[in-house]
Amino acid sequence: MSNLITIERHILEQQKYFPEAHGELTDLLTDVAFAAKLVRREVVRAGLVDILGFAGSTNVQGEEVKKLDLFANEKIISAIGQHGRFAVMGSEENEGIIIPPKNETGSYALLFDPLDGSSNIDVNVSVGTIFSIYRLKGDDPCKASINDCLQHGYEQVAAGYVIYGSSVVMVYTTGHGVHGFTYDPTIGEFLLSHENIITPKSGKYYSINEGSFAQFNDGTKKYLDYIKEEDPATNRPYSTRYIGSLVADFHRNLLTGGVFVYPPTTKHLSGKLRLMYEANPLAFICEQAGGRATDGRNRILDIQPTSLHQRTPLYIGSEEDVIIAEEFEQGLR
Ligand code: AHM
Ligand code: MG
């Protein structure tokens, strides 16, 4: 058998970069990987166990049926929250912060989107979990508050995502490269499959919901005309790829090169995606892989968060492609 590396072992090896963390970061990333396995178990059985449907109804066992995103949210909160490693948590599904039990021993804050891509959940298209980890600002975990969650993206100590797709893949960074692991269901382990992911400087895909064209500003409309023009010297036209699950769209472009854009629209003036649960973790990963992530003007990781569920426009992916999209957004082209 070749040299198989499990995610737990890989995380343990990253500990050398964090001598001051006394292995805590290792434990909590391992907890996240464990929670991902629990969510995976339900996602792959979704149609079988009658777990789909609307929250509030009952299944054949007489148990309350939960929508999969609510189920994932509860699983992550209970699987990760019970160990006392996080002093505070924030979820896209919860309005306010979550203070887990035994939080007095935690030194970190966890922000997560339990199941991203909600429109794809019931139709067997890839969905994912996204997470982001920060060190507490103060020394006393009992005083952990929303301020520990509202940190700049550049203050993240780790971030990652899991895609529940044709195979299940977990990707994470602690600021020392981006590493991907594929789940082997026969042994119940995530195995290293993509070490040190580097994203191409430019790609051939663009990912945007063009159905919202009428709601875009002139810069975005012009950009779309540009990207579809014929010009072999710049590899145009690009091909459209849009799944509607941010993690899946992001992951594809990370590996193949390309650009994902969720611009401001007349419906979502600040874009639709959430800074704390979606943009920041993916921006951290993208930059670590040599890509670029902005809101069309500013680096995502530099944005000062003001609320847990704040939204932002998102231009993310291959550096050269993101710069071109930004230039149109800023009216420079
Ligand atoms: P969600 O958190 O409700 O799932 O919304 C986020 C999702 C992203 O995964 C995806 O990129 C985007 O919404 C798609 O939105 P749209 O349908 O407007 O294109
Ligand atoms: Mg989401």
From TrEMBL:
It catalyses: beta-D-fructose 1,6-bisphosphate + H2O = beta-D-fructose 6-phosphate + phosphate. Its EC number is 3.1.3.11. Pathway: Carbohydrate biosynthesis. The keyword Hydrolase applies. Substrate binds at residues 116-119, 209, 242, 272. Keywords: Calvin cycle, Carbohydrate metabolism, Cytoplasm, Hydrolase, Magnesium, Metal-binding. Binds 2 magnesium ions per subunit. It comes from the Bacteria. Mg(2+) 2 binds at residues 113, 116, 278. The keyword Ion transport does not apply. It is found in: Cytoplasm. Its main location: cytoplasm. One of its GO terms (molecular function) is magnesium ion binding. GO terms for cellular component: cytosol. This is Fructose-1,6-bisphosphatase class 1. It comes from Chlorobium ferrooxidans DSM 13031. The gene is fbp.
